[in-house]
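Hi everyone,

Forwarding the result from last night's run.
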Amino acid sequence: MTRRLMAMTSALVLSPGLAACSDDQPPPREKPTAKPTTVEEPGTLTFGAFGQPAELKAFDRVVDSFNASSQARHVELVTRNNHEQALEAVLAGEAPDVFLTPRRDLMELAESESTRPVSLLLDERGIDFGDRYSRDALDAFSYDDDLQCMPYSVSPMVMYFNTEHVDFEKMERRGLDVPTVSSEGVRSDRWTLAEFAAAAQFATRRGKVDGVWIEPTLRGLAPFIYSGGGHLFDDDSDPTSLDFADDSTRSALEQTLTILRDTTLTPSVDELRKSTSLQLFKRGKLAMIAGFRDLVPELRAVEDLSFDTISMPVIETPATVGDIDGLCISADTEVVNDAADFPAYAVSDAALEIVTRTGYIVPANTEVAGSEAFLWPGREPEHATVFNSAIRGMVIPPLLTTGADTEAAVSPCSTTSSPARVCSTSSSPPRRSTTPRAPSSTRSR
């Protein structure tokens, strides 16, 4: 009896373990496997640009920098050889989402409704349209009461001079007219027409170098005309004809052409048939030429050429003309907000410095224009600040259909012509735009 009881007790004690091993019990649950996370690839955004190889390489770096931080869109750079090809593509309906354009193409772009106003889009992205960007450039890209493109670069016409042929210190010791020197020993970046003439005469004193060459075109003569209080058009806001019969215009031309028609100061026809004025300047055979910022890298590459820059000569008030480029958003882009992110980044200090260091542009961003990235102490031109100060005197002409038509209308212009023949007031400029006005968010530079 005792053995039987013990066997039953053992069976009861072991029964839970037997039950756990029973085939009727469900197997242990497996932990669920995590599903792989799908990473959505960013869409593509196109940016169209033109320029010299070094500029395009710099734009490519800006694009790479943007792509490294963007999770929404991947920007692809589309390059063109020049602005004419870029404009043709846009007008043909092949516009990149964002594209670089010169201000002179703005009327064609606006009338073809190829651009989308950028002021509100960039304002939402924290762009300061105040003192940080050139007011002149903002005004220039304003059309139909809105900012059509974001100013990127501004390049006023200045005077380049060979510092070996135009030595102001040596001229001063000889009692010649030279730009004044401040109490701090800094020579002025402005000079008078008389000082300009004296420099040309000084450079030619040995008869081996020509003094100066100004292109005999409407654009080449414009800084002198504006500085003398003259006008290119009969009305700056509603032009119907050129205005070379105006007394101030004729007076400015007469004073200027007295210098530019002097055959002892300028290259001969034969010289200019064999070489361009720029080639003569690079070879040290010409002391002064007028030009824009894009000449700097080319001149820096010339061995044994020492050059600097100064403003265009002043007759009454400082004045010049210039080139302005901007970043536009295509009216046909399907990704407006993403497209607006790129120009907002491209005009930032860090991005703009990349292109500025190539030497080809004067940034419209005034912070970068005043930085070492642009001024580059120790490199020519020594007085790079001239480009910044000249912007304040830059005259923005009315928007016309095409600048080429304007030049064709005044093709008789010549430094060997009398002022009366330089441009006839009967010549009519191409069709104009409405007067450009600045967006309400801007204020003076």
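Residues 1-23, 407-445 have pLDDT under 50 and may be disordered.

Cheers,
N.
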